Amino acid sequence: MKKFLILSLSALALTFTACGGNTEKKEAPASAVEASSAKAVSNAPVMTFDKTIHDFGTIQEGERVETLFTFTNTGKSDLVIVDARGSCGCTVPEYPKNTPIAPGATGQIRVSFDSSNKPNLQQKTVTISANTDSGRETIRIKAMVQADPVKQQQREAAAAARLQQN
């Protein structure tokens, strides 16, 4: 039992001695990584929009409307927009794809909305994928679409027919 205790204490002492030197060496690279990532965050481009929401007000069903969202790169490095997608097929963005936008420079995203078969309040988003800190930016449009009377009657007739089937 005495030999087992001595062996255990020796192994424990050896473990602490062996690991003690490695701990300091491993901490230095970790803090170097944190410092470099903090530096990368501070140099990232920033998209600052003149507006992030546009309200078209009341429009007639079937109208196609569009608006411009102007943005400025207020960061410290070039801004590159990789993709921009509308939340549905009725919302289509046009943007400067893969074109570097220098710090202080401005750009525009044109968003068009087709209100065909979209009666009532519509709220749509455009998600922008870019090399900003978050990687994604969002802009929104909304409109109150006044229903076309003929199409509304057709929708109501179709709804009534579905209710009769059930």
Give a structural overview:
The protein is α+β, with helices and mostly antiparallel strands. About 35% of the residues lie in helices and about 35% in strands. It has two helices and eight strands, in the order αββββββββα. Strands 1-3-6-5 form a four-stranded antiparallel sheet, with no helix packed on it. A four-stranded mixed sheet has the order 2-8-7-4, with no helix packed on it. The longest helix is centred in the N-terminal third of the chain and has 41 residues.
Describe the strand arrangement of the main beta sheet, using strand numbers. 1-3-6-5
Give the overall shape: elongated
How many structural domains? Answer: 2
CATH homologous superfamily classification of the largest domain = Immunoglobulins
> CATH top level of the largest domain?
Mainly Beta
Tell me roughly what share of residues is in helical segments.
25-40%
Given helix and strand content, the structural type is alpha+beta
What are the low-pLDDT stretches, counting only 5+ consecutive residues below 50?
21-28
Q: Which H/E pattern describes the elements?
A: HEEEEEEEEH
In the CATH hierarchy, the architecture of the largest domain is Sandwich
End-to-end distance: 83 Å
Q: Examine the coordinates and then state which fold CATH places here, giving the name of the CATH topology of the largest domain.
A: Immunoglobulin-like
